[in-house]
Write a structure and sequence with these properties.
heterodimer, A: alpha/beta, TIM Barrel, Nucleotidyltransferase, domain 5, 2 domains, 5-stranded parallel beta sheet, 5-stranded mixed beta sheet, 15 helices, 40% helix, 16% strand, B: alpha+beta, Alpha-Beta Plaits, two-stranded antiparallel ribbon, two-stranded antiparallel sheet, 2 helices
Chain lengths: 475, 92
């Protein structure tokens, strides 16, 4: 979860508008309720009691945490005292980072995210109109130069102290797209753990410079191409959902509205309450560790079992019988056939979109607010991105509601050959097929990876994966 | 002489800790400057600190009611462009 204790910022970015606060919107820098450090700690304690899966508390804004040092550090100190088993993290633009690295180390901050959009001050001058530095507002190239220098210095200092560093970069087409490859190589060289390249969010109604001036966002394909190009350098983060500075819960399922200040302030927190909540978290973590171990052990066996079910099933339109399929799958338990083919099967990589929930193919096509995108080949299914299907803002009349949602969803799935979901209606099925995307409702409630692999093997068996790999054929 | 915070203020707190005279205080619907304390940073800094970090155009004005950060000066959006965009898609 994020606690929104840090309203002030010391720089301006062209993708940010500090005036905005809309509960229907979900993007960084947007927040509904500013908290005092005391309120934030109480909120974290309550959420950690209600959700034993909570592991990390972060401060990400809505401004810059290090431009609000008193509020940020007071929050961290109290958290360390009251919920010592939770990890602490922080997200910053990096301008004030060198000044506070030692304090972050003292407080045992687990990891720090720095937003680094460029290393070149000429590019920086196109992204940052000004910074506040040493009691002055500095503009243009001079501002970008200082910011870049402080970011890099902060990054180096964190690494030297053994604090994990993630780097966020906003992909701005025509501004820093090519340059981000250089950024990725540089931060890897310096020891950053993870690079999270995020698409620019830009719409006129956000009131940002980029939104008003018509700077476009990148397409999902552009984002993926850049992430792929940078992947040789270091681990790419592909699951980022660009959440709000007050987000709570799992990716894609923000529960912040369940924990508003008026609900939390009426609660009394006792030592017994804290101890019991901590006990539940420990039990949860042990359970997860045990489940993960069991899953790993059973994984290959389960994959074969599902492949058999698929082969034996009568061909039929999945959109009519997906519910029945679910029962059939859980009732079946053949484990004897289907030799492991993965080792000596060759075929091209297929991009598949999955309406997933908690790692399973569990969403109805029409209910999915996002699709996870997997790159599937004989060697496995790898998460490479996600596609949103709804608008960033759903509550305002200004947010283009008269657009055809299904058409937008199909556009969002561009480049994917298959879409896996628990169930799908006839109309979207037809429209997807017409757009060249194959809907598949044959694997409801299966784990995403094994469902993707099963579909890939079906496509392979049908001879659909031999094309586009002429080099392999010649060899 | 004193500066004044007006209704455009978004209460982001950036100015409060910077004021050398501790003249800025939280209030509703926006923060306020104690005119008796404000020196416009004369003798302390070259520029008034509140107006140097404030992210909102027009939120801080001088005694002539002139904004220290006029339209377009912080976002870089030309005022005419902003007005046109507001007409097309209304937003804050």
């Amino acid at each position: 979860m994020h606690v929104a204790v840090a309203p002030a910022c010391n720089i301006q970015c062209h993708y940010c508008n500090r005036k905005y606060d809309c509960a229907n919107e979900s993007r960084p820098g947007v927040v509904s309720e500013l908290l005092t450090p005391e309120q934030a700690v109480k909120k974290a304690v309550v959420v950690a009691a209600a959700m034993p899966q909570l592991a990390v508390v972060g401060i990400a804004g809505p401004g810059d945490p290090l431009a609000n040092p008193e509020r940020t550090f007071a929050t961290f100190r109290m958290l360390a005292e009251r919920v010592p088993d939770l990890k602490l993290c922080l997200s910053t633009n990096g301008l004030a980072l060198p000044h506070y690295v030692d304090e972050l180390a003292r407080l045992h901050i687990d990891h720090v995210t720095i937003t680094i959009n460029c290393l070149d001050a000429d590019i920086g001058a196109e992204i940052y109109p000004w910074i506040f530095w040493k009691h002055k507002r500095i503009r243009g190239r001079a501002a970008a130069e200082i910011l870049i220098e402080q970011q890099q210095k902060g990054l180096e200092m964190l690494i030297a102290r053994g604090i994990l560093v993630k780097v966020n970069s906003v992909l701005i087409p025509g501004v820093n797209d090519e340059h981000l490859k250089t950024v990725s190589a540089c931060i890897k060289e310096k020891g950053a753990l993870l690079h999270n390249i995020m698409p620019l969010i830009s719409a006129p109604e956000h009131g940002t410079y980029y939104g008003v001036m018509g700077q476009r966002s990148p397409t999902p394909e552009e984002l993926k191409a850049l992430q792929d190009a940078c992947e040789g350098n270091m681990a790419m983060m592909r699951h980022c959902r660009q959440c709000r500075a007050d987000a709570i819960g799992l990716l894609g399922e923000d529960r912040a509205s369940e924990f508003t200040l008026d609900k939390i302030e009426t609660m009394t927190i006792t030592d017994d309450f804290l101890a019991a909540a901590r006990q539940r978290r420990m039990a949860w973590r042990e359970k997860i560790a045990a489940e993960r171990k069991a899953t790993e052990e059973n994984d290959s066996a389960r994959r074969h079992q599902q492949a058999v079910i698929t082969l034996h099933r009568q061909p039929r339109p999945a959109f009519l019988h997906a519910g029945a399929t679910e029962l059939e799958v859980s009732g079946h338990a053949p484990v004897n056939h289907s030799p492991s083919k993965s080792d000596n099967v060759s075929g091209r990589t297929v991009l598949m979109a999955v309406a997933a929930k908690n790692g399973l193919v569990a969403e109805h096509f029409g209910h999915a607010r996002e699709f996870l995108v997997y790159e599937v080949s004989a060697s496995g299914a790898k998460l490479v991105g996600h596609r949103k299907t709804d608008l960033y803002c759903v509550g305002s009349a200004a947010c283009g509601e008269n657009e055809d949602t299904l058409e937008k969803t199909i556009q969002a799935l561009a480049g994917c050959e298959v879409v896996l979901c628990a169930k799908i209606g006839y109309e979207p099925w037809k429209r997807l097929e017409a757009a060249g995307i194959l809907p598949n409702g044959e694997h409801p409630w299966e784990s995403v990876e094994s469902a993707c692999m099963a579909v890939w093997h079906e496509m392979h068996a049908a001879g659909k994966l031999a094309s586009q790999v002429p080099a392999q054929k010649v060899a | 002489m004193a500066l004044e915070i007006v209704e455009a203020c978004i209460k982001c707190w950036a100015c409060v800790p910077l004021c050398p005279q501790k003249a800025i205080y939280e209030a509703d619907p926006h923060f306020l400057i104690d005119a008796g304390r404000c020196t416009e940073c004369l003798g302390d800094y070259a520029d008034p600190q509140c107006a140097s970090i404030c992210p909102i155009e027009g939120a801080i004005v001088n005694e002539l009611n002139e904004p220290l950060n006029p339209p377009g000066s912080l976002t870089g959006i030309p005022p005419a462009r902003w007005t046109a965009a507001q007409r097309e898609t209304p937003f804050r």
